[in-house]
């Protein structure tokens, strides 16, 4: 059973930075994409960033220019560098591996809390 383990969340002041990390506990093959989602209290889950095995990236408009996704598909790791953080970035952040040919389809991490104070 593959698990994704996240780390790097915490409390930071507005304007600060955090780096989230996510690592797969086992081998995952045929990954089509790695993503970061977030969910704030009372809000729907939002797709924040995506990276493909080929290195193509895509970002939500709300984080463009501030967040950077990176990762190594072969090593089963994905990162999210978050700069110029705003209180509106406060949420639980989840990493996912999209593996459409697997039984699970998409693997999720347990989530890590990011809190940005004014």
**Radius of gyration computed on alpha carbons:** 14 Å
* Protein structure class: mainly beta
Order of secondary-structure elements: EEEEEEEEEEE
Relative helix content:
under 10%
User: Termini, distance in Å?
Assistant: 40 Å
Q: What portion of the residues fall into strands of 2 or more residues?
A: over 45%
Mean pLDDT: 95
In terms of quaternary structure, the protein is single chain
For the secondary structure, the number of strands is: 11
Major beta sheet, specifics? 7 strands, mixed
- Low confidence ranges: none
Tally of alpha and pi helices? 0
What is the global morphology? Answer: globular
Overview of the molecule:
- The structure is a single chain.
- The protein is mainly β and 118 residues long.
- 0% of the residues lie in helices and 53% in strands.
- A hairpin with a 6-residue loop joins strand 4 and strand 5 (46-51).
- The mean pLDDT is 95.
List the defining traits of the structure above.
four-stranded antiparallel sheet; seven-stranded mixed sheet; single chain; mainly beta
In short:
The protein has 118 residues and is mainly beta. The chain is built from no helices and 11 strands.
What's the SSE blueprint?
Layout: E1 4-7, E2 10-13, E3 18-24, E4 33-39, E5 46-51, E6 57-59, E7 67-72, E8 77-82, E9 91-99, E10 105-108, E11 112-117
Parallel strand pairs: 2-11
Antiparallel strand pairs: 1-3, 3-8, 4-5, 4-9, 5-6, 7-8, 9-10, 9-11
């Amino acid at each position: 059973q593959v698990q994704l383990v996240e780390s790097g969340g915490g409390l930071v002041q507005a304007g600060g930075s955090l780096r989230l990390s996510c690592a797969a506990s086992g081998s995952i093959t045929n990954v089509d994409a790695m993503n970061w989602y977030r969910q704030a209290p009372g809000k729907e889950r939002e797709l924040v960033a995506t990276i493909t095995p080929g290195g193509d990236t895509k970002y939500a408009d709300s984080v463009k220019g501030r967040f950077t996704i990176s990762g190594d598909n072969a090593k089963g790791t994905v990162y999210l560098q978050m700069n110029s953080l705003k209180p509106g970035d406060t949420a639980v952040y989840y990493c996912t591996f999209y593996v459409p040919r697997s039984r699970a389809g998409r693997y999720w991490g347990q989530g890590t809390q990011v809190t940005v104070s004014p």
